[in-house]
Amino acid sequence: MSRVRFLLAFAAALAALWVAPLVLPIGDYTHNIVGLTFMFMAAALAWNWLGGYVGQISFGHAAMFGVGGFVAARIMLSSGLPFSVAWLLGGLAAGLFGLLWGHPTLRLRGPYFSIATIGVGEATRLVATYWSDFTGGSSGLSLPLAGNPTKYQLYWYGLYLLGGAVLISYGLARSRIGLGLSAIKEDVEAAGDLGVNPTLYQDIVLFLSGTMVGVCGGFYASYQAFIDPQDMFSFDRSIGLILMAVIGGIGTVLGPVWGAIVFVIIQEFLLANYSELYLGLYGALLILIILFEPLGLTGLVRRLHRLAIPVRRAT
Prior knowledge:
The chain has 15 helices and two strands. By secondary structure, it is mainly alpha-helical. The chain has one domain (3-244). It has a two-stranded antiparallel sheet. The chain is globular and about 55 Å long.
């Protein structure tokens, strides 16, 4: 798809989603869940910048999600700054935190990097749990409703987050940095020989990814109006981001968007009916996708499209 066609289609879809709640009879529950889904889409896209474009599979993005959420929450509790500014500051703090641990660990590749990120995520969760002066510990933090957007308003803020994440995803994929990331993903040493600076490129992507995930953490804090370290920094959170990208199509521009939709629908169904089994069922789904369709829904659509072309020619 050409750049002009993509931007036109993107603008039309964004406009349709913006006006949908104003003209369609959508219930409050559905309205709120859709707004939260927009946030998950943005977070999944942000994870994909590192896990999909660079090939560095991170199991520690919950650390940035939690840092962004708690920093934003503390800013909202202690200052009169607008909540959107608090989200952005929380996101920047999360991006810088990502660089703090990511700059040295990004020299690792494959499973070694993934194992390191598991350690980072769990260590961050433990520190946050015991740092009760900042996070509230196991008691968590409650955000006052005054000065905070309602869940109804968060629909549109979630849409803005998604719009920004989609534009960054498309820009990265079509830019010189995107070409460098593809080279790093294929062979980091060969990319360096061709003039690509792997350290700089990976640091840039990690900072962007961590910042966006941190902003999503601030959004989530406002959505829930109560956060605690066990939820914000949970390993389940990181697994969820990976599943969204894998279900939709890891390394693709819009795959994580479709994956997030499927993830939220399945999650709502499983939590309501099989609350003790949903993680195991997610694991089984992940294995099936990896075995039979590594590019997820995006790969499935592409395969069906290739099969449909001979049928069209024959008719």
